[in-house]
Design brief:
MetI-like fold, globular, 11 helices
Length: 223
């Protein structure tokens, strides 16, 4: 593999790792709220979270490009703050990846929190644990398999993104050219051997990771 391929691999791993970390930090309070709230807003918020599951990635990428562009509201805000524009930058890729992979992290966490039920938290409350203490000492340990699923799904889904990253990040070597775009370039250049090597590597990696996840889930329930 040449330098461009290694650069794409490195950039993709950085993007997937950072995106997953951000999603876990942001997705935890959101999933907790969705799992416990009875507010009328739960339905609309759940629909927004799940939207990337049914929305074509190019549509999401297009509207992000418009919104973050020089004439968009967020683009004008970032320019006024001296931050420049996010499209065609690594930061823009991170933002797009966070939005596109959101349901793959929030939904497993929400299911894990819902499965806990009220009883463990009520017991913690009788022991004078604050809501934060109960969440940290009771809810988080009980939701560990949900966190495992969310981490794996968020990371692997980000690895395979194409439409959003291409629309929002373009194809800049060393800055926004991730593995999926690199494979697309190789196919366009009729470099099928190199494209096959990368595609097969991603296929095997994704399969092994998901197989390990499914193998660990029953063990997590038994404990």
């Amino acid at each position: 593999m040449n330098g461009a391929t290694w650069s794409a691999i490195s950039l993709t791993l950085q993007l997937a790792g950072l995106t997953t970390l951000i999603l876990l930090l942001l997705g935890t309070p959101l999933a907790w709220w969705l799992a416990r709230t009875r507010s009328w807003a739960k339905g609309p918020v759940s629909a927004v979270v799940a939207l990337p599951l049914v929305l074509p990635p190019t549509v999401l990428g297009f509207y992000l490009l418009i919104t973050l562009g020089p004439q968009g509201p967020i683009g004008q805000l970032t320019q006024s703050l001296g931050l420049g524009l996010l499209p065609f930058t690594f930061s823009g890729l991170v933002l797009g990846s966070v939005l596109y992979s959101l349901p793959f992290v929030v939904q497993p966490l929400q299911s894990a929190f819902e499965a806990i039920g009220e009883r463990p938290l009520e017991v913690a409350a009788t022991l004078r644990a604050s809501p934060l203490d109960a969440f940290v000492s009771v809810a988080l340990p009980l939701a560990r398999t949900g966190y495992l699923s969310a981490t794996v799904m968020g990371f692997t889904h980000t690895l395979g993104e194409f439409g959003v990253v291409l629309m929002l990040g373009g194809n800049i070597p060393g800055q926004t050219r991730v593995l999926s775009v690199q494979i697309f370039d190789q196919v366009e250049a009729l470099e099928y051997g190199q494209a096959h090597a990368l595609a097969a590597g991603m296929l095997v990696f994704s399969f092994v990771v998901l197989l390990a996840l499914f193998a660990l889930k029953p063990a997590g329930r038994q404990r």
